[in-house]
Amino acid sequence: IKKSITQYEYHCMCKQAVIVSSIIHNKIKKGKIYKCVRCHNLLTNGERIIKTGFSRESPNQTTKTRTLD
């Protein structure tokens, strides 16, 4: 599967980072409200932290898993 994975780090009042996928990140940007499970405050200030290349190698070994910055 040639799927790119991006993760975002969000912050809340308990000062512990919450890592979300790009799907959740896009929903937050469109106005959906997500809250921290620990402190129940809104998640804010999302920033991209990890961009990964393909999630799995191809069956014929032509595409390798890799990490991009």
Please, could you describe this protein's structure?
This protein is mostly beta strands and 69 residues long. The chain contains one helix and four strands. A four-stranded antiparallel beta sheet has the order 2-1-3-4. The longest helix has 8 residues. The chain starts with a strand and ends with a strand.
Distance between the termini: 20 Å
Low-confidence segments, given as residue ranges, are none
Largest sheet: 4 strands, antiparallel
Would you report the number of β strands?
4
What structural category characterises the helix and strand content?
mainly beta
Helical content (DSSP H or I, runs of 4+): 10-25%
- The largest beta-sheet arranges its strands as 2-1-3-4
Q: Which value, in Å, is the CA radius of gyration?
A: 15 Å
Identify the quaternary structure here. single chain
Concise structural overview:
This protein is mainly β and 69 residues long.
Features:
69 residues; 36% strand; mainly beta; single chain; four-stranded antiparallel beta sheet
Question: Helices and strands in order, then pairings?
Answer:
Elements (H helix, E strand, L loop, with lengths): L3 E8 L6 E4 H8 L14 E11 L12 E2 L1
Antiparallel strand pairs: 1-2, 1-3, 3-4
